[in-house]
Amino acid sequence: MRMKYLCTLLIITLSLVTHGQSIIGQWETFDDKTKEKKGRIEIYETNNLYFAKIVKSYISDENTVCQSCEGAKKDKPIIGLVIIENLKKDGDEYNSGTILDPENGKTYKCYLELIDKNKLKVRGYLGFSLFGRTQYWSRTE
Whole-model pTM? Predict the structure, then answer.
């Protein structure tokens, strides 16, 4: 009986700790194939919506522009480029927004989920979440 009570208390404590954490801050991204660092992204909140911009690139110089982007983002500098827009917090997930892949200029639906305080699941997809790509970003100190 005592062990059951202890396990229940531990589960409740862990869920409260994870639930109270925020995605706001800076995150490192990695290449899917080589696992090398690609960039540093800053996630921020404005009017209860979440956005993210590139603050550092490890694969291109600071003067690189988004040649593949369309519309207002075409030929804008990669550094400072907003790549995630209009995410809404929905329980433990952040969804209903979009993510831009500056390498191909395409925009996808996306959702984010905080796996733990230093690991963020980032999923971009077309149509249904089933058809997409997932990356894991690491929080920077």
Answer: 0.82
